[in-house]
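Hi support team,

I submitted a single chain yesterday and got back a structure, but I'm not sure I'm reading the token output correctly. Could someone confirm the output below corresponds to the sequence I sent? I've pasted both exactly as they appear in my results page.

Thanks,
R.
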Amino acid sequence: MGIMKIIMKTLLKERFYKVQLHTKTLFLVSKRSDLPFYIRLLSGFVAIYILSPIDLIPGFVPILGTIDDIILIPLGLILVIKLIPRPVMNECRHMAECELSAKAT
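Hi R., thanks for writing in. Yes, this is the structure output for that exact sequence:
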């Protein structure tokens, strides 16, 4: 039982780090002035939606409340990542990784 608990804890930490990384990356993209306004606005909106406790469909609505988070967040991430030019995305992801690693130490 102890090994399974350690594995689950490690997996959760890894997933949480990925959510932090994506959110921080989108936040950094939203502050870039060299990108079109609609990309900055959409990336800021997706970053805020990921962190916000307020959902489009409340969690107490059976099934729909959960599906809302399972579908909307990944779709929003995919859409924004496709709109952002690759060099800008790589630069912002690197900056986000540096900031998160500096916080961890």
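A quick pointer for reading it: The radius of gyration is 16 Å. Let us know if anything else looks off.

Best,
Support desk
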